[in-house]
Fold this protein.
Amino acid sequence: MPSVARSAQLAVSALFFGYGLLFATLGLNMPGLRDALTLSETQLGFGLLMVSVGSLLTMPLTGRWAERWGSHRLTRLGAGLTFASLLLPFFSTSLSGLLLAFGILGLFNGVLDVALSAQGVTAEKAAERPLMSRLHAFYSLGGLSGALLGGLLVGQVPILWHVGFVTAIMLALLLWTSPRLLPDGQSTQISRNATADPAATRPSSAALMLGGLCFLGMFTEGTNYDWAALYYRDVLEAQAGQIAWGYGAFSGAMALGRWFGDDLRNWLGNQQTVQLGAALAALGMGLALVWPDVTTSTIGFALSGLGLSNVVPVIYSVAGHALASRGIATVATIGYAGFLLGPPLIGFLSDAVGLRTALMLAGLGAGLVALLAGRVFSALRS
């Protein structure tokens, strides 16, 4: 691999690491923030919803911005603003201030999410081999590192010290990575020329099809993250020390699968990696739900995490190579909507049919990815 490409890969990996570190730090300090402002769970939930709303507002626009100014510049801007915005919620003194702070964080997060993925595709092109799964693995490693650091600092130092320290780490990473990010090259000029056609401003059918696959994959992923612990507690009636097993198995297997995912893509190709991974995830969910036992369910959640680990990274990569930054923006926006809608939909269904039955919808989502991926990838090749 050329040294410039290697340097770019390290830079994008470091930013994905910082991205994961940010959300782990935010999540771990939610209880302290709630107590400091004497908020209810519902009020805090509205705050987190503002992050999602803000992200969904800027994600569709970021592809166009990246085409105009380059994903390397937009990544620098998005990372700097997002990383610095981690501090804002913790300076809030009221619910209205908190909602505004979360909304601002969400707006910048939407820019970083799309721009960083587009920069990952640029790094892939420079390296002339798949990198996206490994880049997403660094996000998982950042989350794990944030959890470990939080375990040492939460409750031991003031929240602002903890958040300020993490912000300083992230901004230091940005300073190191900024000169190593790569211009997008010819794809940007091609995209600029394409925008002269009014039809180019509308999402293409290819982007919508890939977005649909991403929606289903992230629907299943978000459901696993948000409902695994409750499934263990309420359905499996697991002991206190076992409640986190499903979440841990899912998260750990996902990080492991992403670390080795690019080698798998080289071996199987994009389509088979997505199809077999989604099928494995559906099998894992089936195992966890059909045999409601702590051991078998833990194996099932691990299989689900392993299967889903490369679905979204591969779809992002395919979108970037085939459709440039705007394609990533469309796919990311649709996929993120699945990540947001999945958990509450499972909650509504569980009230009607029970959590175990409702979670089968997540397995169905993975199964649909396995069934539909062949048609979508064939359409992209034609």
The two ends are 31 Å apart (CA to CA).
